Amino acid sequence: MVRKIPSGAAEVQLAEAGRRNRHRLFWRWHLYAGLFVAPFLLMLAVTGAIYLFNDELNDAIYPELRFTPAPWKERASLGHMITAAQAHVPGSTATRIDVPADPQRSAQVYLDVANAPSQIAFVNPGNAQVQGTLVPSRTLVGLADRLHGSLMLGTPGSYLIELAACWAVLLILSGLYLGWPRGQGDAWWHGVVPNVRAKGRAFWKSLHAATGLWISLLVLFLIFTGLPWASFWGGWVRSGAEAIGAGYPPVYRRYVAPTAPTVGTRFNDVPWTLQHAPMPPAEAASDPAHSHHANHATSRPGTTRYWTEAGLERAIAHVRDAGTTDPLRVFLPSTQGGALMVYTYPDRPQGQVTYHFDERGELLVRAGFDDYGVVAQAIEMGVQLHMGNYFGRANQVVMLFACVGIVVLCTSGLVMWWRRKPAGRIGAPGSDRSTPPGWLLAMAIATAIALPLLFVSLLVVWAFDRWIRPRSRLFRWLD
């Protein structure tokens, strides 16, 4: 005799089975993502925390370079400071000079050196005396910056960091599902606040779940404000923004040409918005005869200079007369017909202003934050928040909290996994080989739109997990 289960009970059983399958699915992918992402997240958290305090650290480590012995009153010409810096480092070519607004700060001249790492010369603006040099890539902050962006592997490293960041989104969302507070009383409370009285794996699980609940939104914010600088996602967003006129300022569009270089290819360390903006040619405001004469002025024998001291000072005077009191970053043209670029980069992007001048100091282009497209404005604001600049010290503290939380999450997650996993295997929950439900397909479509790199890599891993892993003994350890 076959016992019939009441329809209500059957529905409950089906719902419970569905919940268990869903839990195993999220747990399995949370584990896969965590084992891949955790080393990268730990590195990003530590290097990000260092870079949050880059000015404070550099000031503390190199005070004799970054500060002048006494406040300066009258500034020496930029040309004299650049010449002094180049003379101090034989065979070097100046590419940029940062002009301080604080009379106790030194100017920084960036130097390209043949067959050697680039250097920064610190010059006293009061007397144009070089206080010393350093190789930025060999400093603590410089090392953190290179690791944070590309693992010091160039473009391949940048793609690897981007892939890890995309998988971190999957890690966070699946973790929120698994660790969301459920039940009542102590069960709910210990999902919000770590249970410090628990022992062993129970303590680590409580710490992991509560920490994830508190910092998940912050970490997602850090991911999506960092991705604009990534190779694939950043280019994808930038292209879309520029296609709808929401990227770089319209004033640059007059210079669009098949052979026109971009601001980002001519100069390093420029605002995200201007990376792909076409570079205005200096000839736009210069007569050919004067341009030819100026482009062949030399700072010392054997070194070609594509700017003039008079033009440089005139450009700086124009910027200061416009009311700009912030420190200035001055990029020097390195090719004939190249334009001089000056911009301010304050903690709040609403104060960003970029100027391009010809070699005589005649203004070619001026673009400020209000000229940016809406997407570019949002990204510039996100970048400053990401770097801990926007709200000053409070912003740094909030982002440091996220970095510490990431370290706690990764450490507790790895400890839990190590204590639970069987010998010789990773201990992944069993997978459901039935047809994917509709909600999962909807999530896949949303992922394909928002994070194409994650979607493609997920398809590869899913296909491997579904058809290759179960059929090969080589991958039994992945169970």
Automatic annotation (TrEMBL):
Residue ranges crossing the lipid bilayer per the database entry: 29-53, 159-180, 213-232, 397-418, 438-464
Signal peptide positions (record): none
Region listing for Disordered, in residue ranges: 278-303
Keyword Membrane annotated: yes
Cross-referenced Pfam families: PepSY_TM
UniProt KW keywords: Membrane, Transmembrane, Transmembrane helix
Protein name according to UniProt: PepSY domain-containing protein
